[in-house]
Structures are given as C-alpha cells and as structure tokens.
Specification:
Layout: H1 3-20, H2 26-45, E1 48-51, E2 54-57, H3 60-82, H4 86-103, H5 113-153, H6 170-182, H7 187-215, H8 222-235, H9 238-253, H10 255-259
Antiparallel strand pairs: 1-2
Helix pairs in contact: 1-2, 2-3, 3-5, 3-7, 4-5, 5-7, 6-7, 7-9
C-alpha cells in the first residue's frame, strides 16, 4: 500500500509500545528490528522500472539479500543499544537451569551452575546467529503473508511469480563467507559477524528450499517430501546446514536448470 502507509504503521506500533513500556529501549528496538526492515522490504517489493516498454520488477533474489542485510543491521544496532553481554547471559542461564534441575526429584545430585556453564556458553555463542536466522525467517513469512493480503485487496500490482525460481546474487555468497570467517573473532566484532552470518544463512536456506520445491515438481512423493523437510526444519537444526549448502551450491551447479533442461514443465 505504499511507503507512507508502512511508515505510519511502524510509528504507530512504536507509539503503542511506548505507551505500554514507557521506560527502556523496547519501542526503539521494535522500530529498528521490525518496523524499518519490513517497510524497506515492502518498498522493494513494489519497486519497478520500465525496460523496453516492459515493466521490470525488483528481483526476488535481491529482496531476499536485502532482507538478510536489513535484519543483520537491525540486530546489530539492537544489540548495541541493549548491551548484549554473553557472559552475563551464560551466568543467568546456568543459574536458572541449575535451579530447575535442583527442584526435580532425582536420586542423583543435580549438576551445579559451574558444571552447566560450559554447555550454556556454547549455546550462547550460537545465539546471535540463531536469532538472526529466526528473525529473517519470520520477516520473510510476514512479507509473504502481506503480499497475499494486498493481492486480495486488489491493490497489489506485482504479478505472481514462481518463488522456487529465486536466485541470490553472488554478492550474498561473498558476504556470507566474509561474515562466517569474522564470526570467529572474540568479543563484539565476532558477535556482530555472527548475526550477519546467521541472517545470510537464512537466505541461503530459503534458496535451498526453493531448489527442493523445483526439483520435486511432477513427483508423486512431492507433498510428503516437502512436509518432511519443513517438519525437520522445525524440530532439528541439521536440515538448516543441508539446505544452506544446497542454496550456496545452486549458484555454481544450477540444479534447477539441470532439472528442467530439455523439459517444458515449469509449473
């Protein structure tokens, strides 16, 4: 419905949160983490230009890339504002888990917070990347639902597209490689790099899923395969790595092009 409507909605959401939680950074985190990225992406979805008397829309693959970068920036800024403290989070989580285990009635003595801390430290080290991956997934789902709603209203001019044809620009692969390498740095630089690595991994996973949708077209087992893939994504982290590798490899191996080589089937 246009950039002004999105901006008004974001500001209104910030005002509501400010009325509920007047103190702290919550309203600003909402605006940075939810309002601004979604408004920007909605603008890209509606962006087009005329090329040789034909309208060319902003590519879906670049929208996906922008989503990862926008969420990465939003999370990095939010982390700086709220003061992300990995050691503090580790200590609090270790104490909470130790207290919960101590309350359980068992024959063996429960582990102490000090014994739990190494495991919690490992979990916390993955937190920036996992949070970014989740936020990109939520944002993309919101954007897809928004297109359905807007198309139903008759105000969505962008034509329907086969989302399984989405292709990330090579810039996304380069950015992911750099972020992944820098994620091993200690302290805040490594945390920020982890955020971008997780966000870009989410984009690669989306392409990996698009490849699965494409290569299973026409198969009788397609519904079962897709259902199993999405269920595994919800309950296990391993498919994230698998689909991320597939998404990264698609730019080099062109699995979808090989699948439809010499075939007229594109639906």
């Amino acid at each position: 419905w246009g950039l002004p409507a999105g901006a008004i909605a974001s500001i209104a959401g910030e005002a509501v949160i400010m009325g509920i939680i007047p103190a702290g950074y919550a309203p600003f985190v909402f605006l940075i983490l939810f309002g601004a990225p979604v408004v920007w992406l909605a603008r890209l979805v509606g962006m087009s230009r005329m090329v040789d008397d034909a309208r060319e829309w902003f590519p879906v693959g670049r929208i996906l890339f922008h989503a990862a970068i926008a969420i990465g920036l939003a999370l990095a800024i939010s982390g700086v504002l709220t003061g992300f403290d990995p050691q503090g989070v580790t200590n609090d989580a270790s104490a909470a888990v130790a207290k919960w285990l101590a309350a359980a009635q068992t024959d063996t003595p429960p582990p102490t917070a000090a014994e739990i801390e190494p495991i919690m430290r490992l979990y916390v080290s993955f937190m920036p990347a996992l949070l970014a991956l989740l936020m990109v997934a939520i944002t993309l789902l919101d954007l897809w639902l928004a297109t359905l709603i807007t198309r139903a209203s008759g105000r969505f001019e962008r034509p329907r597209e086969r989302l399984w044809t989405v292709v990330l620009p090579n810039d996304a692969l380069i950015a992911f490689a750099i972020a992944l390498a820098l994620a091993f740095l200690p302290g805040p630089p490594g945390d920020i790099a982890s955020v971008f690595a997780g966000a870009l991994l989410a984009a690669l996973v989306a392409v990996g899923l698009a490849v699965l949708h494409a290569v299973t077209l026409g198969m009788n087992a397609r519904p079962a395969l897709l259902t199993a893939a999405y269920l595994l994504l919800l309950i296990s982290g391993l498919p994230v790595i698998v689909f991320g590798i597939i998404g990264a490899g698609e730019n080099f191996f062109r699995l979808r092009a090989r699948r439809f080589a010499g075939s007229s089937k594109t639906q």
